[in-house]
Write a structure and sequence with these properties.
With 269 residues, this protein is mostly helical. It folds into two domains: 1-109, no CATH class; 111-269. It has helices spanning 6-39, 69-73, 87-107, 111-133, 138-151, 164-185, 191-204, 208-229, 242-265.
């Protein structure tokens, strides 16, 4: 039996402390992400006006804005006019809180954690906005690409970054591949998907971008097949692909190299 040690207790307490901190931080940012999801596609300011009920226009007070708790306490309805609050508000706060907790447990307190929190927040926003509005916004893609270029200049021992030149190579490969896909699909995909593929390449590098795209295609195909089988949408109705590109990028950031090694193993490499 392993003897109990004071250091083990301290480590456990600190792990729990930071787990709670990152979970709460994620929930708080999830509340802000809901604002971005509502306002960015409409071209509205994310600062003014202050948070308010879209139904009655009343400015929300602090008790109305506590992540998750306010939604549950108000039973999903506005305190002032009883209009329903979109369930998406609650789900985003829960999802971002869980995402931040997972990333902390996966990376620990490290430079990789900081990069991962930024990347996953960005990818999650793209996921939700494209899912809800079928838009991949330039106001997000272009600043994000610039930020990722700067991050790729960080020291090479930060394993989550592909490096500056490799990131550019990945972006070029992603852009070229998706330009060909857009041409072949004859309008089935848009330029937003092309720009997203370029951003994926900057994050994943070469050949990691192909892992992300492969995972996006597989997951997108499976979900589209289920949706069509259940007759939730017709064959001519568009299904946004941005969410799957985001998911593919997230998975490739976390497990891209093992997936690539597993695949090449079939060919004896």
């Amino acid at each position: 039996m392993t003897p109990w040690r004071v250091n083990d207790y301290k480590y456990g307490v600190m792990t729990l402390y930071w787990a709670v901190v990152f979970t709460l931080l994620g929930m708080a940012l999830g509340s802000f992400f809901n604002v971005l999801v509502d306002r960015l596609p409409a071209g509205k300011s994310i600062i003014r006006p202050a948070s308010h009920c879209p139904a009655c226009g009343v400015k929300l007070r602090v008790p109305d804005l506590v992540p998750i708790v306010s939604y549950l306490a108000l039973k999903g309805r506005c305190r002032y006019c009883q209009a329903p609050i979109p369930r998406r508000m609650l789900m985003v706060e829960l999802a971002v809180g869980a995402m931040f907790l997972f990333l902390y447990l996966y990376y620990g307190l490290s430079p990789e954690l900081g990069v991962a929190l930024f990347y996953f927040s960005l990818l999650f926003l793209i996921f939700i906005i494209d899912l809800e509005h079928q838009l991949i916004l330039n106001v997000m893609i272009y600043p994000a690409a610039l930020a990722v270029l700067v991050i790729n200049l960080l020291p090479a021992d930060i394993s989550i970054t592909p490096g500056f030149l490799n990131g550019l190579a990945g972006a070029g490969a992603g852009l070229l591949l998706f330009v060909l896909i857009v041409i072949a699909s004859r309008g089935g995909m848009g330029l937003g998907d092309v720009k997203m593929a370029g951003l994926m390449g900057l994050m994943l590098g070469f050949p990691g971008v192909f892992v992300g795209i492969f995972l996006a295609v597989i997951s997108g195909g499976l979900v589209a097949g289920v949706i069509l089988a259940l007759k939730r949408k017709g064959r001519r109705e568009p299904i946004p692909f941005g969410p799957f590109l985001s998911l593919g990028t997230m998975a490739a950031i976390l497990w891209g190299q093992p997936i690539m090694d597993w695949y090449l193993g079939f060919f004896g490499f």
